[in-house]
Amino acid sequence: MSAQLIKGTEIREQILEEITAEVAQIKEKHGVVPGLVTILVGENPASISYVTLKIKTAHRVGFTEIQDTQPVDISEADLLALIDKYNKDDSINGILVQVPLPKHIDDKKVLNAIDPDKDVDGFHPVNVGRLMIGGDEVKFPPCTPAGIQEMIIRAGVETSGAEVVVVGRSNIVGKPIANMMLQKGKGANATVTIVHTRTKDLAAHCKRADILIVAAGVPDLVKPEWIKPGACVIDVGVNRVGVNEKSGKAILKGDVDFDAAKEIAGCITPVPGGVGPMTITMLMLNTLKSLKFKLGIE
Ligand code: GUN
After folding, report:
1. pLDDT, average across residues 181-208
2. φ, ψ at 244 (rounded to 5°)
3. φ/ψ bin of 122: left (φ > 0), alpha (ψ from -120 to 50), beta (otherwise)
C-alpha cells in the first residue's frame, strides 16, 4: 500500500490564502499591513534566490516588503547600524538577515542585534528561550519546525502520546522541533527522542517512531526497514545529488529512501515539494503575528 503524500505545496497555498484574507481584514479595520525587510549581504546565488522568493511571497499576501541589498564588503558596524534603523522603524514588523554572512562578519552578533519582537526567523536567544518555555511565551517559532508541525496537524496525525523520533540535532531544525513536539498543546504532547551521529543503533530508535522527523542532511540515510508500518515520515533533507542534464536544474534527494519508504509509511513528505515550501510560508505567518502582537489582537 502506498502512503498518503503530505504535500507542502498544497498546504502552502491554503495558508497563504488564509494570511492574505487576514491581512485584508486588518488593513480594513486598522489601516496597516505587516512590513517585512530582508537584508541580503553580497551576491551568493542561493541566498539571492531565497530572498527573492521571500519578497515575492510577502508581496503576494499583501505585506509591505523591502529588499535591502548590501555590498559584500559592508562593515559589521554598518550592518549593525542598519539593523538598529529597522529595529526603530515602526512600519517594520519583521527583520530577516539572510545567512550565511561574509566571513568578516559575525553571524551570531548580527542575528542577536535584531529586536526579539521583530525576529520573525525565531533565531534570537530570547525567542529560543521562549520556545523552550512553551505555551503563551512563544512568539516566533522558527520557520522550518513550525512548518513541520503545521503539516503534521493538517495531515490529521495524532501527536498526543505518540513516539516522535527526531534524527538530527541542529539549532534550526532538530532541537527546536523536538522541543515543540514535547510541549503541551495542539500538534504536540508527544514522547520525543533525539538521535544524532553519535547515537548507537539509529535503526532501533527509528523503528519505534510513530512520527519520524529526519533532518540529518544525508541522502537516503533512512532505510525502509527502519520505518514502522503506518508511521508518519517527515523528510527535511534537501540534498543536491546531481544536475539534470536537460534542464540544468539540481537533482534533489531527501534523507529518506522515498520510493521504498512510501510503501511502508502511513504518510510521508516528498522531496522536493514537502517541507521546503513550508519555511517561507511560516515566515509570512510570523510576520503577520508580529503585527498582531503590536496591535494587541493576538
Ligand atoms: N539561510 C538559509 N535559510 C535561512 C533562513 O531560514 N533564515 C535566514 N535568515 N537565513 C537563511
Report:
1. 98
2. -70, 120
3. left
252 strand-pairing partners: 240
Which residues form the catalytic set? Answer: 54, 98, 121
Structure confidence at residue 1 as a pLDDT band (50, 70, 90)? low
User: In the prediction, which pLDDT does 298 show?
Assistant: 76
Task: Name the residue of 54, 99, 108 whose CB sits within 8 Å of the most ligand 1 atoms, as the mutation to test its pocket.
Answer: 99
Residue 194 scores a pLDDT above 90: yes
pLDDT per residue as tens digits for the range 273-286: 999 999 999 999 99
In the predicted model, what is the mean pLDDT of the chain?
97
Q: Is the C-alpha dihedral spanning 278, 281, 287, 288 positive or negative?
A: negative
**CB atoms closer than 10 angstroms to residue 296:** 6
Amino acid at 78: D
Query: What's residue 243's pLDDT?
Result: 94
Instruction: Give the nearest ligand 1 atom to 142 CA.
Output: 6
The helix (run of H) or strand (run of E) holding residue 54 is helix 45-60
Q: Cα torsion for 185, 186, 187, 191, to the nearest 10°? A: 30
Reference 204, options 163, 171, 237, 173; nearest CA is: 163
List the one residue out of 97, 92, 104 whose CA is nearest residue 123. Answer: 97
278 lines ligand 1 (CB under 6 A): no
Q: What is the pLDDT of residues 106-131, one digit of tens each?
A: 999 999 999 999 999 999 999 999 99
Q: Is residue 252 a contact partner of residue 80, using CB atoms and an 8 Å limit?
A: no
Q: Pairing relation of β-strands 94-97 and 35-41?
A: parallel
Pairing relationship of beta strands 163-167 and 35-41 according to DSSP bridges: unpaired
